[in-house]
Design brief:
The chain has one helix and five strands; from the N terminus they run ββββαβ. With 84 residues, the protein is mainly beta. A hairpin with a 5-residue loop joins strand 1 and strand 2. It binds zinc ion.
Length: 84
């Protein structure tokens, strides 16, 4: 019998890495491919970006991510789930 269990103890009180930048930029999301960027034009598809977006998706390995496949993503990076 498997009478033991693994307890996933995360790092308690994880410190935030580094200090925050003085200016907080509002990230924008591409209307075409949902890629999140600071630029006005998407670096991936040259599409227009928008500040009106919801949901945050980080794709670390797009080839193994089901969500990335569903969204038609073929690159790693940060993406918005919904862009207006
Ligand atoms: Zn794009």
């Amino acid at each position: 019998m498997s009478g033991w269990r693994r307890t996933a103890a995360g790092p308690r009180g994880a410190r935030s890495a580094g200090s925050d930048p003085m200016v907080i930029k509002v990230p924008k999301a591409c209307k075409k491919c949902s890629h999140i960027t600071d630029e006005d034009v998407c670096p991936l598809c040259a599409g227009q970006t928008s500040k009106e977006w919801q949901g945050y998706l980080i794709v670390v390995d797009h080839s193994r991510s089901e969500i990335a496949r569903k969204m038609g993503l073929h690159v790693n990076g940060k993406f918005a789930l919904r862009v207006r």
